[in-house]
Amino acid sequence: MADIQKQFISFHDDIKLKRFKENKELREKRDIITSKIKEGVKVKFEEREENVPEIEFIDQGSYAVDLGIVPEDKDYDIDEGVIFNLHKEDYPDPIELKKIIRDILNHHTNTSPKIKNPCVTITYLSDNEPMYHVDLPVYLKSKYTNDLYLAWGKEYSSDENKYWDTADPKGLNEHIRNSFTDNEKKQFKRVVRYMKKWKDICFPSSGSARPPSIGITIAAVDLFSYKQTYDPITGEFKDNDLIALKHFVSNFKGRFIPQWDYGLERNVYTVEYQLPVQPNRNVFSKMSKLQMDSFYQKLNDLESALNEAETISDPHDSCKILSPKFFGGKFPIPVSKEARYKQVGLSSAPSSSSAKGI
Amino acid sequence: MTINYQNLLLEKVYLSGIESIDSFQYKLIFELRTGYQIPLILTFSPQFPTELPIIHIDKSSHSIPDIPHVMRSGLICFLDEEGVIWSDIPEKTIDFVFERVENVLISNPPQEEYHREFSYYFGTLENVEFVLSVYPPADEPEEISVFTIGKKAFAFLKGDMESKTLLGRLFSTNIHSRSLEKAHYIPLEKTFEGAVPQLDRFWSNKEISNIIRSHINHKMLIDIQKFSMNKSKHYYLIRIPLLNGEQTVIGLKYEKINQSLSKRVIPLIDEDISDEFKVTPYFVFRNDDTTLLQRGGGVKKSLNILLIGCGSIGSDLLFILARSGIKQFTLVDNDELKIENSYRHFLGMNKSIGRNYKVELLKEEFEKRYPNVKIKINAKEAIRTINTGKVDLNDYDLILVAIGNPNVERKINRLIYNSSTPAIFTWVEAYGLGGHALVSNNGNQGCYECLIDNELRMYSSFAGESDVPFTRNMNGCAGSFTPYGSIDSMETALLAARLVMRFLEGDIEGNPLVSWKGSSEIFRSEGFHTSWRYNKSLDSLKQDNYDYINPTCDICAEKQMWSITHDCY
């Protein structure tokens, strides 16, 4: 059985995105935006001679739960929820507050902020390349419940596409953060990051063919289990990310349900995973049946590769199965036996006797 | 040739922290390709690179892993030498060694692979003793006998007249009832799935009793209880079904340490008292009848022969030549005749009891049989014997080399080329594929070195390339040895003997290679394949072959050049 734990760890060190705590630059960008919003809201509401609402910010997404990976396209993604202490009953048009946010940040960057369905997006460019973007979902409260409501819809969406829907960003963060502790948590995070990297490598760069990261994360919270194996050389048990990853992938595969497709004359595999917090909808709902099926096939390929990598005892051959095909070029491949011990198979009868040390 | 060992090690990127303990011993850190760094102690042999260095895990800074091929002392058994040729260029030898060491440390093959080699690994046990068995293993447990002399057991047998007679013939002695003790044969019912004992890792007494109890039925358990009652020594012959579907037979001897212990205890199955006994594992040789082939020509001239290597081929060769009338021999071999290597040996098993040097036993035997024959002996390692001048190659008319270790033979070939004495090398291939004899240093080009190509393959080989050495299971023993039968070694001895006769007649031109080939059926059935040369006809293989000669061989080509240039002066 291959021992490629060191290679997995080094791969992880390479793809891991630092958290806010450790990433001063991004933290400063976030703080500039949040204080600008606070000030802007104050100005806007004072102009409208209304009471200035309290605003709370919440870190969301992979930064908040420390599951980020360095993006392939270098377009870093910050999710920062804006919670107004206002009631949705007073704001029947969910776009109103999104427009306020957009206007406040209008000249903050060279590209104009965009109102997207679930958020307002601000894009930072460097040499005309997006360097990172900040997604700002906007939440309100309700007079009648304790829930938070997310503002859905674009500026010119039809009325039925503009609505408030329950959401629980704090609950989601906690669900993920509290799922594991200590070394289990560390391996859980690594496995999620490996999966995200695999997704970057093995799926087209955008669109709904890509399984959403939150889906993978939710599945991992449910299906991941901590794996250690006995290391005969040291006589100790140590983390085995290869086995943990393989175990997760095959469990995940097991959650797909085959359905006979009469048109294709074969089984098509689909998957559902409920968001563990409100609004509890299927996190894979944006994917079509065929996209889910292709997701399944790719998981299957990954599982076979991990199985094969596990059975091979040579670390070079083992890593070569995974890199670059499944995890990209950042997954290190140790030198081959032939390259390291290259002297072994070479000529044993050199013409010059000096080479023999005689 | 002096080698700077330290520089040799410093050149390797995978080694670090090299610290010299003395001029032959070094501490170093070896980085495996998994990224793990392991501290080792490497000890060079003065014969390096002909002999490989010894490698231990450095106990002072690392625990000793419980993995196959690593002894509890930390010694890494990274190679079964026989059948493998390694480069004799020091830089490459080091790479070769560390590739093998790494392989021991990182490869983690499934249990079944060890089961396939059960006998081999069992034979490497430190405290193992070797016994013969003429008992055909049955499917039911039964009481059998064991033939002992003094405290030593020699053979398991059924105990009836026929078995006694057969055994008596093998050991050239009468088997009296007083030299027979009771033994119990136990065929395990269930397949054993555990680890195969090897080196210094034998089962603990507790483990044995667990294995026995969990692999037999209740009736057998009662049988064992009945049998074992009231005995101070207990002998068992145990048949074990293995994971690969085969069965192996091992023996065990239990001796009471604590004499005050009740006679009613049964150490094999009672794990609480099992540590009150000393257990000796027996490697069991199952008996086959061996046949002696007798042939011989007639020698007219007197000839003084140096025979290096007195194993099965060497001893047979000596026998044929002595019977052919050659009277003067010097024998060099540092091996003792043991029960495990006496099997195909000319001297036979009865001579193995004293564990004397083969050369001593041969001298005694031949001078008794053929009063005219004069034999000088040297029970030292061959290269050392030549290097130290104990034996001067120039004193002989002909040198015969039958060591069966290509690395040593390469070195000896080199030494022979420093002398003026012609030589004949002879060796046999695994699984009865065939055998070879090669004349060397007989004028013109062509020598042992020519046979070995740049990829370290042997021109003559009938065995195709394989990653696995052909030193597999058959009658495995404490050291590894190439599996071939008595007839094969004798056939090879004959091939070489004919060359000697031709040499005597002055009938050999230059340095021909001759070969015989046998059946490849067993070899192929083991999953190996044969070489292109094996496909040649038997006739053409027996004819003198000069195609193997390497015109740029740095041993014989250089000597040719040397003699040509000297002729000019």
Structure description:
The complex is a heterodimer of chains A (358) and B (569). With 358 residues, chain A is of the alpha+beta class. Helix content of chain A is 39%, strand content 19%. Chain A folds into two domains: 18-173, Beta Polymerase, domain 2 (2-Layer Sandwich); 179-334, no CATH class. Chain A has helices spanning 5-15, 24-47, 61-65, 95-104, 169-177, 182-202, 213-223, 241-254, 289-311, 315-322, 337-340; strands at 55-60, 76-87, 114-115, 120-126, 129-136, 138-141, 148-152, 163-167, 228-231, 236-239, 257-261, 266-270. In chain A, strands 1, 2, 3, 4, 5, 6, 7 and 8 form an eight-stranded mixed β-sheet that branches. Residues 345-358 of chain A have low confidence and may be disordered. In chain B, β2 and β3 form a beta hairpin. The radius of gyration of chain B is 26 Å and the shape is globular. The longest helix of chain B is centred in the last third of the chain and has 20 residues, at 486-505. Chain B has three domains: 5-106, Ubiquitin Conjugating Enzyme (Roll); 115-286, no CATH class; 304-566, Rossmann fold (3-Layer(aba) Sandwich), CATH 3.40.50.720. Chain A binds chain B through residues 1, 3-7, 10, 232-235, 313-316, 334-335, 337, 340-351, 353, 355-358, and chain B through 1, 3, 13-14, 32-36, 38, 63, 65-67, 87-92, 94-96, 98-99, 102, 105-109, 449, 452-456, 550, 552-554.
Major sheet size, sense and barrel closure of chain B: 7 strands, mixed, barrel
Helix content of chain B: 25-40%
Q: Mind telling me which CATH architecture of the largest domain in chain A this is?
A: 2-Layer Sandwich
How large is the share of residues in beta strands of chain A? 15-25%
**CATH architecture assignment of the largest domain in chain B:** 3-Layer(aba) Sandwich
CATH class of the largest domain in chain B: Alpha Beta
- Based on Cα principal axes, name the global outline of chain B: globular
